[in-house]
Amino acid sequence: MVRKTSTSSKVKKRKEAYKRQLKADSIPSDCVNFVNKDMPAIFSDVIKMKEQFDDYKIIKDVIKKLVSKVSRLDNERNRQLQIRNKKKIEATISNEKSILKRTRQIIWFKTKYQNVLFRKKENERAIKYFRDKYHNNNDFREKQKSRIKEHILVKYHKNTNFRVKNNARASRRILNKYHTNKTFRDKVKTQSNIHILNKYHTNKTFRDKVKKQSNIHILNKYHTNKAFRDEYKERMKTQFSEKYKSNKSIRLRTIERTLNWYRNNNTSERKNLRRLYNHSRRVMKKYTIIQSHKYAAKHRNLYMDNLNRFRQIVREGPDYVCVSCQLDLFRNQVVPFFE
């Protein structure tokens, strides 16, 4: 960065340069050819006056240049200010014209939009323009997606009715897609299984809840569904039998548990209860046999009645013969024909 020189330093430099020039042009005092001896004094006065005049001239030139520069800068500043003011006025006028033009266009468009054909045509044109821009312009497409997503998120969090409607619509759409699209159904099942397995292994609360629900469901199904109960019993017997035969530790533990149970529960009270239970079973079995005998006698009587009725019908023998197949028929097998 160059430092600017002040006016006084400029004046001083010019004075020194002028003095050096005068010294070079002056006549030495020891010159013998110079006739007049009073001449040096007069010459020195002249030199002083000339120096003062030159100083004044230098100062005048410097001031003149400064004034010229200042006036030039001032004129330039005024010119720039006028240009700016002119531009502002032009911009204001242009803005007012554009606003007026835009207002006229809006009024015309509103008036024209009342026409059904124009409205339909304008809507189709706007939709076509938007679709073309959406498909061809990647920046516009991404911007539109982000804007719609943000708008839906804000509306979803603030508007309860919209949230309920959106959830219902999404549920219906997913259910329809789940029932109609096999690929989507398999994908959802896979994702659901992976999510549930991860949650089951990582979340202890969820794991305990699933175990509890599974136990309740199996118990309810066990008590209500006989086929499931029999299948479950058979499966558990098979599993336990395989474990009992293959795993020695389980076999020993089972034997020990059985012995302990028998040792702890084989009391007199337990024996009495077992005796009463066996007696009740015998009584129930006997009662069941008697009831079945009664039912058999009743059914036998009914059978004999039907047999006697049949014998009464077929006592006389077949009376008719079929013309086509030559089959003998009884009287009750033939419908009489009357002309």
Walk me through this protein's architecture.
By secondary structure, this protein is an all-alpha fold. The protein is 84% helix and 1% strand. It has ten helices and two strands; from the N terminus they run ααααααααααββ. It has a two-stranded antiparallel ribbon with strand order 1-2. A hairpin with a 6-residue loop joins strand 1 (320-321) and strand 2. The longest helix is centred in the first third of the chain and has 75 residues, at 39-113.
Looking at this protein, list some descriptive labels.
1% strand, mainly alpha, 339 residues, 84% helix, two-stranded antiparallel sheet
- Shape descriptor: elongated
Q: Which structural class best describes the helix and strand composition?
A: mainly alpha
* Multimeric organization: single chain
Strand element count? 2
Quote the average pLDDT: 79
Q: Beta-strand percentage?
A: under 5%
Low-confidence stretches: 29-39
Order of helices and strands: HHHHHHHHHHEE
Percent helix: over 70%
Biggest beta-sheet profile: 2 strands, antiparallel
Spatially, the strands of the biggest sheet line up as 1-2
Number of helices: 10
Question: Roughly how many Å is the radius of gyration?
Answer: 62 Å
Rounded to the nearest angstrom, the distance between the terminal CA atoms is: 144 Å
